[in-house]
Design brief:
The chain is an alpha+beta fold. The protein has two helices and five strands. The longest helix has 32 residues. The chain binds zinc ion (ZN).
């Protein structure tokens, strides 16, 4: 995938790398990529036991939504979509918290 660098404005191909970090004693896998020309680092997302669990739950909900809509069960679809929104909010909350945490400690703390 090709993106444009926010810092230098050149486009480059993403090469995602993973590094392990620690957050309050828990292992976090940070998926990130770097623009090799100017050295700017971008974090794609953080993976923890909790975010992994949430992703699995959301995947299951997506499957259930497909099934429920095929069966024409609109009430069930609405319920599932609501559940999914809640999980998404949780995911975003975790991401924000981790971003803040790692920002305060600096990028080079591994
Ligand atoms: Zn750049």
């Amino acid at each position: 995938m090709e993106v444009t660098c926010d810092v230098c404005g050149k486009s480059f191909t993403i090469d995602v790398q993973i590094r392990e970090r620690e957050y309050k004693g828990e292992k976090v896998r940070e998926h990130y990529f770097t623009h090799w020309e100017c050295g700017t680092e971008y974090t794609g997302y953080y993976e923890t036991a909790e975010t992994k669990h949430l992703s699995e739950e959301r995947k299951r909900i997506r499957d259930d939504v497909q099934l429920a809509s095929r069966l024409g069960n609109e009430e069930e679809v609405r319920k599932l979509v609501k559940m999914d929104k809640k999980l998404k909010k949780q995911q975003l909350g975790i991401k924000k918290e981790l971003e803040k945490y790692f920002k305060e400690r600096g990028q080079n703390d591994r």
